[in-house]
Amino acid sequence: MIALEQVEVRRGTACIIQDLTLSLTPGLVHVVIGPNGTGKTTLIRALFGDLPISRGGIRIGDQALRPNSRLGRGQAWRSHFAYMPQDTHLDIALTALEVVVVGRLGRLGLHIDDETLELATQRLDAAGVLHLADRDIGTLSGGQRQMVLFAQVMMREPRVMLLDEPVSALDLRHQIRLLDLVRLETRKRDLATVVVLHDLNLACQYADRLIVMRPGASAIMGAPTDLISAALIADTYGASVEILRDGRGNPVIQPIGSLGGDPPPVPPALFSPGA
Amino acid sequence: MVRGPSFRLRTTASARRSHSVPTMPAPHPAGQTAIQRHRHREQRRLWMLLTYVGLSLASLVLDVATGPSLLSPGEVVRSLFGWEGRSAMTDAIVWDLRLPMALMALVVGAALGAGGAQMQLLLANPMASPYTLGMAAAAGFGAAATLAFGGFGLPVLVAVPLGAFVFSMLAAGFLLALASLRRRGGDTIILGGIALLFLFQSLVSLIQFMSAPELSQQILFWLFGSLTKATWLTLSITAGVTTLCCGLLFRLSWRLAALAMGELRAASLGVNVRALRVEVLAIVAIMTATATSFVGVIGFIGLIAPHIARMAVGEDQRFHLPASMAAGALMLSAASVLSKTIVPGSLFPIGIVTALVGVPFLLWLIFRRPGLS
């Protein structure tokens, strides 16, 4: 169980996250949604210890991250996490297999042993990209590269997985493949997974818990079916939506228009019934 | 922070903490193929590395052979290995005059190649090298100032390298201070380095402008770079420092490879990015400042050798670092041969040779960049 208690994070003078209290459950996928600038990436980086918290605390097991503590910058804290940052740009002449092997940094020496290579091929296989093992990482497509990078973080043995917009540059097929894999590994390894997504419908499909970051209000967490309502989306995004249900009862969010200001003009009907 | 490559086996406890790490799985055919291919690639890289080393040694023999009195490579080899059928004259030329210079070319080339390779990785920028970051220019200023002030009471042969070393380290200190700032990336270091480059270049010009013509000439010659002042003593100092520093860099190489994948990603793989930056900058600074203070400013090796190495062995750091050293050694040694043969009977400044050969090569590299490896 990972607990955030009244966490506040500042960047410069701006208070990005305020009074955030959450608990993250192992084995569940927590999807963070919210408009730009509400602190989704900040939340991920604060968890990872890359940004200091200015109030409150974050607890993992018997370790607690407090304001001004140096714990967050050290390995004792960071070894709990597998973190995929937003940026997937890689300018390095290594094969996909070698990129995955680097995921085992700290155990790598002069000779890469068979065990490490076997583990790396298994990770690539699980991500469905074993056939790309010999390819130079720079020649892969964005989707393929993201799958390889996921295989890389899976070389670690984390308790918490942090994914910052992992699918925003991917096509539908790769989006689903990666998120399916994320869910599978979350269950299999009992990870507490936090994923930032922009696509609300993907978020509702894959979230066990949805964390909604709201501008000017504290975040709320819950199951998508319980949480999502037209009023919440209107409140959070300033957009007017209709909530539909898919075959499994998951919410589907259909945008209608923006709130505030005039609605977009309706084009005059060319043909009207009975004319 | 993770310390050094660890060769110890994983304890079973840590290996089994996650139940998805299977107990020695059944061999996966496609996985086995990938592993075999990887092993082949490792072997091919090793051969490429050995080829570079072999070429450097061949160039060393040629370097010793060329000069005012031309020796045959056979004579050189006989003298080097102490075989029968050599003359005392040849021995004197080889061992007393030319071998220190020729070995210095290899050692300095290796130091510059390794320094450039690590800087490029560290700053994730293919244009980074100790030269482009102003460390060589600072050394040039140190040497010029020492010459202008008559060595500050020390003999010139000691004072000039010392002045160059001190100023090179001052420049490095500035870059280190930038690197240790929080929330500052590699770009800050590069921009700071470029500022240093311009500052010290204009200061050198100022000193030259204000000096007597003979002194200005002396400064100019130092700035061109020259191996002729190499002695067994300066050679052993440079070789010792280079060996030590490259050993330390080699230990950090996997972490540098992770850093080249982005700062946050490296941090997520367990790298303390700030500490790594400071450590590597300090090592590279000491190594290149030492080399530069004895031979003067030699550009381009640090910039290009890593690219030549990358073409041959990729960026697997176990091969890339030694290959960068070998490529640098080969380049400087070959430049030394050229500098003695372009105008027969006279010595062309080696710094000019490396730049003249280096520029077209750099352009060629730029145009083939999309297809790296």
Automatic annotation (TrEMBL), chain A:
Domain of life of the organism encoding this protein: Bacteria
Segment Disordered: which positions? 254-275
Report biased composition (Pro residues) as residue ranges. Answer: 262-275
SUPFAM superfamilies according to UniProt: P-loop containing nucleoside triphosphate hydrolases
Give the UniProt keywords, A-Z. Answer: ATP-binding, Nucleotide-binding, Translocase, Transport
Q: Which residues form the ABC transporter domain?
A: 2-240
Q: Which GO terms describe its molecular function?
A: ATP binding; ATP hydrolysis activity
* PANTHER family, A to Z: HEMIN IMPORT ATP-BINDING PROTEIN HMUV
Tell me, in a sentence or two, what this protein's role is: Part of the ABC transporter complex HmuTUV involved in hemin import. Responsible for energy coupling to the transport system.
Name listed for the protein in its UniProt record: ABC transporter ATP-binding protein
State the organism named in the record. Answer: Azospirillum griseum
